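ARCHIVE CARD
Drawer: 12
Card no.: 0347
Subject: one protein chain, sequence and derived structure
Cross-reference: see card 0346
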Amino acid sequence: MKAKLAAGTKILLLVAAAALVLVLFNPIWRIELNAPQYPEGLSLKIHANGLRGNVDIINGLNHYIGMKTLHNEDFIEFKVLPYAIIFFAVLFVLTVVLNKRGLLYTSFILFVLFGILAMYDFWQWEYDYGHNLDPDAAIKVPGMAYQPPLLGFKQLLNFGAYSIPDTGGWLFIGAGVLLLIAVIMEWRKVKAGKSSAAASAPAMILFALFFSSCNTGPEAIAVGRDNCSHCKMSISDIKYAAEIVTQKGKVYKFDDITCLVSFVKDKAVDEKDIQQIYLSDFSAPHSLVKSGEAFYLKGGTIHAPMNGDVAAFANRDSLTKMVSELGAAEVSWQQVSQ
């Protein structure tokens, strides 16, 4: 008797196929560039069939530092990628129609290999783009390369480059997750001999947990290793450290609340782009508390690294216990951030 797919597996495969079709109509990846002379930022959006966004402006800027200009016709990937995506969408549907578990496993292996190959190709393009520079360029910095980050943030001269999947990329990743869940469901069904309904419940929970865990959050602050994003000094006292997390998940760390406030006032980050501000709890320094939920003391014997002299507390009880010892006065976040 041939191994048949569970109903839940078929649904996941069909949803994954639909997600891949949507990838064709949405940008897969984006690289954003921010600099003082471009307060609105520049954006390069990579679709399955070409580049969109501020391509002409970016080409003009890159000409000065000897980087290659970007033209869709120079990339064979834009000719191949749409067909590759359609191939996998059809393959997922075919797996449902033929109802074969072996074809499901084959689809998963091919999809993973394709994803690895695509990321390697992307990294290789970035490497060539950032290292093979015109020796006769107007601006030359000895030893400098301009390779954009594969994922995350990187400083390139006065430009901050941010690289992250766009809508199509998340759809592609989501299709991969659905495919993985389908494989796990079938594997568990075979191993435990349970019904598809029993096997699909925990898998669906895993799926929900995966997407609910995509929220950005704070990072641990490493004393002696992390530097202040404002004054560039090494963070030396965890009790006064702070950080900003942006809507895009980028984290700026500070050795003093005063540095954080100055950083925002200097428009180094737009206030509307700030997702959350976190401060070290003075009474439990390795814990972070949101600025809007914290309580503050200022002055007295508080000696912050950059003379901000403000300490944050996670709760009022902790603050009350330290008032007399520190000889400080309670202030609000509005007062601190002015």
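Annotation on reverse: Residues 34 and 41 are 5 Å apart (CA to CA). DSSP finds nine helices and twelve strands in the chain.
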